[in-house]
Structure formats: C-alpha cells, structure tokens
Amino acid sequence: MMPVLVLASHDAGKLSASTARAVTAATQIGGAIHLLVAGSGITAVADEAAPLAGVAKVLAADAESLAQAATAPLVALIESLGDAYTHILGLSDAVGRDVLPRLAARLDIQPVTDITAILGPDRFVRPVYAGNGFETLVSPQVRQVLGIRAAAFAPAGEETPVTVEAVPVPEADGRVRFIAAHRTQTETPDLGTARVVVAGGAGFGSREDFVMLETLAGRLGAAVGATRAAVDAGYAPNDWQIGQTGKMVAPDLYIGIGISGALQHQAGMLGAKTIVAINKDEEAPLMKLADYAYRGDLFEAVPALIAAFEKWRRV
Ligand code: FAD
User: Is the pTM of this model over 0.90?
Assistant: First the structure.
C-alpha cells in the first residue's frame, strides 16, 4: 500500500494538538504515514512533529508563499508531490475546509469530509442530518482526499523522532498574498480539542452576566462555548459558537447552561461523552438529552458552582 500523506496543522510556530489526532486517523487507513509540515519558517514545527508515533517521515516545505496556510500555494505543493499518495488526509477545520475541496477538484475526485471514524482504506463514517445520524460511506475512488474531525480521534503518542526531509516548493503564482492575521487573544483551551467545555446560551441575558460562565470555565480549566443566540446577542465572540454553523466539540464533559438545545446546536456537541444541562425549563431538548440535568435558575446555580469549585481547589 502506498503511504498516506497527512497535512500537519500548526499555528504561530507551534504544532496544533489536532495533528496527533490526524496521525491516529491515518494509522487506521494502513500504509506508512508521511506528515507534511508546510509553512514559512517551520523548522521548529517539523521537529515538534518528528516524534509522533506512527509517522515514518516528516516532509518540511518551507517557503514565504506558504505562510498562514495560503490555500492556492498549499494545493500546488501537494499536487507537486505527484501520484505518490493514494490518501491525502487533513483536518475538517478552517484550513482543511478550504484546502481539501480545492485539492480534490484539482485531482478530479470527490473529497470525503467531517470523518469521525475510519473503517478501512475506502470506508468512512461521517455525520448526516446535522449530526442526528451517521452514515458509513464507501468511497471507491483511486485516490482519496479526506477531512477528519480531530476530536473524534485520540491523539497519537510519541516515540523516537523520525527524519525531517525538506521538499521543494513550487513557484508561487503570486495571485494569493498574505496581508494580515487578526487573532483573538484567549487564555482558555482550544474548543475543538478541549476535554471540558462549558457553554452558555441566551438564558444569560446579557454580556455582563455571561462573564459568570467564563469564571466557571476558568475554575474548571474548561474551554468556553456559546450558542448562536448568545453570539448574535453579543454575549460571546463568534469563534465560541458551537453547532452546525460553528465549531464541533467532542469533550469528555460538556456543560450547557441556559441553552435550549436546538438541533443546530446539538450538531456541534453530540459527540460529548458526558452531557450536563442546567436550565429552568425541564422540557428543553438539552435537558432531555443530558446525562445529568439540573432544573433551576442559572443565576443561582452558576455562582454556587463557582464557589464549590473554588472551595474544592483550595482543599
Ligand atoms: P434559546 O433557544 O432562547 O434558549 C435559552 C434557554 O435558556 C431556554 O431553554 C430557557 O429556558 C433557558 N433560560 C432562560 N433563563 C434562564 C435562567 N435564568 N436559568 C436557567 N435557564 C434559563 N445555534 C447554535 O447554537 N449553533 C449553531 O451553529 C447554529 N446554527 C444555525 C444554523 C441555522 C441555519 C439556523 C436556522 C439556526 C442555527 N442556530 C444555531 C440557532 C438555533 O436554531 C437556536 O436558535 C439557538 O441554538 C438557540 O440558542 P439558545 O439555546 O441560547 O437560546
């Protein structure tokens, strides 16, 4: 079997935690794994990737044109690697959603995205109907371009580092140019890979009260999420939104507070192992879905939880 090419994800000079999960997914296809680290000034990232268990070789593509995961140069780079790979696997994240379909179009094949399980080289599981069902898809194509949901796979461990090999980068066509990156500064863990997520909804009623949720998340070392209603009302920034049109999370523990649990929100959090809901309405869909549901006023429950975790931390 030909080797599998995995696209490493990295940001601000650091390998993202999702890359180790993509490597695990690739091991389920079979064949050796080559990990492509593409970017500008990525020597340290490539070295960070070299010990990932299961990786046979790290390919380092270092060029100014590849800065900020610019889509067209990245696709041109992968194409330049030729037919050496039957399977090209990346993440179904902001970069992957851009790169993978474009690459697949260039190769004249159908990409398979949002994969949550790999059953073989051409059998993949992915959610359908906004996460309310899963389909097993057989993709009988000669080559496969695959996008995985990182949170659905465990991270690969580490072993003796493999060699890092520099690969030539094709000349950039100059039509795409990086201008600026506007970053959200946050101290909280990454939503996509967090083990604990605390999410808030319209029930908070104001931006000022939503801060309570952030305090609770801080006590728990959790990532903060929100519903679209909370984001639209300005309680939380856009990149905290969980759901069909937001982020997908699959933590060990999800705590949803003041959230009704609309299907579009559920689409982003059904993968959580344990679901806790706090709502004053016991008929809310999230309360019915939850493993643990607490019916009550969040303005009492959240301060009580903050105080309890504060006390517990001091013990
Ligand atoms: P509500 O439905 O208004 O629920 C608020 C809840 O808070 C209620 O259950 C209420 O009982 C409870 N509450 C109120 N006060 C208190 C209190 N004091 N104590 C305890 N509980 C209280 N939504 C998403 O979240 N993510 C998406 O990605 C997304 N994508 C969408 C895409 C499309 C195409 C469409 C049409 C909609 C999408 N939505 C999405 C919106 C979704 O349909 C819901 O409108 C939204 O999820 C509701 O958010 P909410 O639960 O915060 O608000």
Answer: no
